Amino acid sequence: MNRELKRVSTVVLIMFVSLFISSSVIQVVTADQLQADGRNVRTLYASYSAERGPILVNGEPIAYSEPVDDEFKFLRVYPKGELYAPVTGYLTLNQGNTGLENSLNDYLSGSSNDQFFDQVNSILTGQNPTGAAVELTLDPVIQQAAWDALGDLKGAVVAINPKTGEILAMVSKPSYDPNELAVHNTSEVIDAYDRLLNDSDDPFFNRTLAGPLDPPGSTFKLVVAAAALESGDYTADSSFPNPAELQLPESTFKISNADSGTCGSGSTATIATAIRLSCNIPFAELGDELGSNAIREQANAFGFNESVSVPLASTESVYPRALDRPQTMLSAFGQSSVRASPLQMAMVSMAIANSGTIMQPNLVESIVSSDLTTIQSFEPTLFNQAISPQTAAALTQMMVDGVNSGAANTAAIDGVEVAGKTGTAENGEGEPYTLWFTGFAPANDPEVVVAVVVQDGGGLGQSGTSSGLSAPIGRQVLEAVLNR
C-alpha cells in the first residue's frame, strides 16, 4: 500500500511541478509576447479603451485616434492612407495589426513597460490613459516624390540617409486604404480584408522589405565586385575573356550580355568596364574564380541572410548555400536563387556611399509619452563595416562611370555627380523582367541612397528596361532630396 501511495504522490508532485512551471512561463517569460500578439482579443479590446497615440511625420499625424460614440470610444484614422499604409499598417478589431501599428503597439496603446507610471497615474487620477506619440524619420516631401515617381507601376522605393541610417522614404505599390479596416463594423472589416487579401496584386505586402523577394539582377554585381576587391587579388582593372556568348560548365545553357554582344570592343573586359556597361559574362567568369563561399561571405557582410528590423521586420535577402559552378556563375550577376529587397540593395549602396560603413536603417525618430517625456530618441547605430574605405571608393567611381557614360546614364542629374547601378532580372522563360536601380548622390558627399524595384516588367513584359523605368524613378527621388 505504501508503494502505491508513493507512486500516486510522485505523479501528483510531477503534475504540480509541471503546472507550476507552465503557468510561470506563461505569466512571466511569454507575458509580453502574448500581450503583443495581434490575436489576443482581450488586449485588443482593452487598447480601444485608451486614446491610442499618433504616428507622426514631420509633426503631422499619419495615424491618430478620433473619439466616437460607440463601445470602442476611439476610431483609428489614416489621413493619407495609401501613401503611408505600408509603414503604418492597419489596426482592426478582429484581423490583427500590421506595420508600425503592430511592431510599436505597446507604445501606441500606452501599455509598454516604459509607460508603467503613466498607467498608474491614469488609475490614481481617473484620467483616460493615452498612448505615446511616435515620430518617424520619413520626410513628407521625399515620400510624396517617391510615390509620384513610381506612378502606377508595381514596385517599391526606399531612400535612406547613409550617414545616419534614417529612412527618408518608404513607398510600396499597389497600396491600400487602412481606413477601410479600421471601422468598427466587423462584417465591413472582414469584407475589406478578404478583398485585399485575395487581390492578385498583393497590396498588403510592403515591397520595400518584405513579401516574395525578387532576383536583384545586375545590382548584385556590386556585391561580387566588392568580394573581389576585398580579397586583395583583384582591382578595378582586373580583366577577363570577352566573348559574346559563354556556355556554362556542366551545362548546355549559354549566357550572354544584355545587348548580346561583347563587353566593349576589346578581347578582354575589366571589372570596371563590366560594372559601367553592366555585362554578365565577365561577372560570371569572376564569380567562377571567386567561388560561392567568398560571394556569400561578402553578401552576409552587407546584411544578406538575416532579417533587419527598422522596426518593421524585413524578409531575409538570400544568397544561398551549396551552389554548384553554373549556379555560382549565374548568381554573380544576380540570377540563380539570389533574392533581395530594395532595403537590402539600399544597404549595399549605403556601404559604398559611406566609406564601407552600413548604419542601422531606422524609421523611428522618437517616442514621446502623453506627458511629453521622451521614452526613446533616435541614435545612429552601426550595423556593420561591410567593406574597406578603399573598396568603397573604387566601387563609387565605377558607379559614377556607369551614370556618366554607361548603362545607368538615365539617372544623371545636371550639375551633380551621381553614382548608380541598374539591374534587369529574369524570372523564367516568358516571364516579365524585374527592373532595378540603386545609387546615391552627390557621389563625393552623399546625402541619400536610394533603391528602386519595378516588378512585372513595368507592364511591358520583357521589353521593359531598368534604364528606361527604374533609373529615372531613382533620379527623381535623388533630386527631391537634393532640392529640399
Automatic annotation (TrEMBL):
It comes from Salinibacterium amurskyense. GO terms for biological process: cell wall organization. Pfam families: PBP_dimer_2, Transpeptidase. This is Cell elongation-specific peptidoglycan D,D-transpeptidase. PANTHER family: PENICILLIN-BINDING PROTEIN 4B (PTHR30627:SF24), PEPTIDOGLYCAN D,D-TRANSPEPTIDASE (PTHR30627). One of its GO terms (cellular component) is plasma membrane. GO terms for molecular function: penicillin binding; peptidoglycan L,D-transpeptidase activity. Residues 155-479 form the Penicillin-binding protein transpeptidase domain. InterPro entries: Beta-lactam/transpept, Beta-lactam/transpept-like, PBP_dimer_sf, PBPA_dimer, PCN-bd_Tpept. Residues 52-134 form the Penicillin binding protein A dimerisation domain. Gene3D superfamilies: DD-peptidase/beta-lactamase superfamily (3.40.710.10), Penicillin-binding protein 2a (Domain 2) (3.90.1310.10).
